Amino acid sequence: MKYKENREFLKVGLQFDMADKTAVHPLAESDQMKGKPEPPAEKPYNEEDLIYLPDPWDVELKKRDIIDILDSRESRRTPLGEFTLNELSFILWSVYGVRINDNPKKKRTVPSGGGRYPFETYFIASDVKGLDKGLYRYIWSKNAIFQTPMEQEKIDDMKRYIGFVGGITIFWTAIPYRTEWRYMQHAHKNIAIDVGHMGQNGYLAAEALGRGCVAIGGYSQADVDRLLGMVGIDEFVCYIEAFM
User: Which domains can be identified in the chain, with CATH numbers?
Assistant: First the structure.
């Protein structure tokens, strides 16, 4: 039963002895400890290509009570019509944005192990008022988006490889080195945990908007990476969530 070997992935790989002050730090050989440059927190973009989104708080919410939102959260696949830019802004901000109030350190709406935030947020806009149908990337530092080239036939092919698409379909891509830079081979458990935080925030945002949301864990990895223009080594799709 080889799957038992994979269980080690879920365990903490670092052993700390908090009482032994002379112990060698378990991450002493990490690229961070070696003084290598920190990887960028965001992939590059051209400022002139950005489409700035509305204030994420300037949106009409159907639900605001957190108990009601948590109690009613579930996967929903029924299309509910066109999204507004305000709804898009609220969803993207909820899953990977910068907190708005009293936040001089630019803390985010989701946690990440060691503050590494190893993801990029792409999405296909299939039914968003004011946006051309296509593939976009979210620039979290500016609450903005830009369209990245993707042929219509590739967008149409996506349904074959992920089952279905929503009015908004988010693809989170992992850039593992952002976390490996600090945590080496122990990074990957953190990355897996981090993506769950974003997925849950997506569900809660959809519920607050009165929208549907479903996480997609079963998809054709190689085909989806290829359609997004990725080789699948230094960056690859890690999680998909469709909003209805």
Answer: 2-243 (3.40.109.10)
